[in-house]
Input
Amino acid sequence: VGHDERQRRAADVLLNHIAISPTRLSRLTDIEFTAPDAALAARVTNTWSSSFIQMTLERRFQATAYARTFLESRLDQLRRKLEESERQLVAYASEQQIINLLAQSGQGENHTVVRSIVADDLAALNGQLSQATADRVQAEAHYNQARGAGGDQTEALANIAINQLREKRAELAAEYQRLMVQFEPGYPAAKAVQSQITQLDKSIAREEGRVSSSIAADYRSALQRERGLQSRVDALKSGLLDLRRRSIQYAICQREVDTNRQLYDGLLQRYKEVGIAGGVGVNNVSVVDAADVPERPSSPRLGLNLALGVLAGIALGVLVVLILEQSDESIADPAEVNRLLGVPLIGSVPMTVSQTPMDALQDRKSEL
Output
């Protein structure tokens, strides 16, 4: 006998002796196996339930095998497509010299925005230009004030060195006036004081000229700085506009990369979920009560069999009597002659079994 034939016979034996009985109003199922050996019956029952649980798990795992194979193929395609789009993006950015920086947007820890170096430089220079313009306006106002009527004196009053020189000149002028009260201008002491006053006037004039030159130099420096920054800002604006024109194709490539990455990440997450669902050992079928070796045989049941035998014998006897009664066509009652045959009864002759008719007639105790 071949292996397949032995398996078929074993399967027939199992199917002929196994009994699966679902319990009503519950999700329980009883498994029974009938065998001459009690230990064999318990072992087959437990093996049947464990094999069913294992088969359920394998069926669930096999159900996800096709999905895993399909997802693996799609993941490989999307991975190659993502890599190709990323290479195109990097190549275009290198060709067009587009450099972007990533920065947190404040909408979330993982959310980033792209900034260009040109835009950052332009923003920084705009801030510097605003400050330079404010400094130039202040220096220009200071310069115009110094050039106006009395402007030099006003600035000079704010200069400490000039104030000290003027205070000293005022003291010498007072000393000279005091000497003029007593002496002539040609007096040596008066001439010396006058000489000092003249030197102080020259020093004051030089200091006032230096202050005016400093104010003009500050104004020219502020104006030059403002113009330089304005020129750089204009150049950066032109560069930014050109960058934006060149960034149109870059944005298209970037969107393609982002789309491919989202598709790849979503499909990869789905692949992981399918793998976990197929590989996890959780089943909705479990053994509530394992089969134990029975202490007594389930069959034959002597009491039940005897009772069934007695009942069957009685029923069979009654059936035989009824059949014999129905099959007997003889007339047992003289009253039935007229009913069955339609003729009147003349008389009845008793039947003798142990005696001859003559002996029965001679016997006084005989029915004849």
Summary: Confidence is low (pLDDT under 50) at residues 108-113, 149-154. Residues 188-279 form the longest helix (92 residues). The beta strands are 18-22, 29-33, 100-104, 112-116. Residues 329-368 form one domain.
